Amino acid sequence: MDKKKLYVGNLPWSMTDESLRELFASYGEITEAVVIMDRMSGRSKGFGFVTFATEESAEKATAELNNKAIEGRNIVVNTAKPKEDRGNRGGGFQRNNFRRDDRRGY
After folding, report:
1. Which residues of 70-89 are buried (b: 16+ CB within 10 A; e: fewer)?
2. Handedness of CA 89, 95, 100, 106 (dihedral sign)
3. Long-range contacts, 66-72 (Cβ 8 Å, 24+)
4. Beta strands of the chain (E only): which ranges?
5. What are the structural domains, with CATH classification, of the chain?
6. pLDDT tens readout for residues 61-89
7. Considering the entire predicted model, what is its pTM?
8. Residue ranges of the alpha helices (H) in the chain?
């Protein structure tokens, strides 16, 4: 697990990549700061990721910014976890799960 990458949740809807970078800049060198956007609407999903150059900077930022109020919202800051393989949870149509033989002849 990369301890230099932080998950930042409960972000204000107005937060941009640049404002996220500015918020964390005083804690050390940042290699990446990104607010996750919804593909369909183009609006923020309310969370993002910040990657620092060193683990020490990430730890300091986590300790000082977790639960801090930003624009009226208490942000959540912790070490990012790897994205889980979603696999097939049984929901939605997936072409590979449908065969002509499965149709019933009512």
Report:
1. beeeebebeebeeeeeeeee
2. positive
3. 70/11, 70/12, 70/15, 70/23, 71/12, 71/14, 71/15, 72/12
4. 5-9, 30-37, 44-52, 69-70, 73-74, 76-79
5. 5-79 (3.30.70.330)
6. 999 999 999 999 999 999 999 887 656 55
7. 0.78
8. 17-24, 55-65
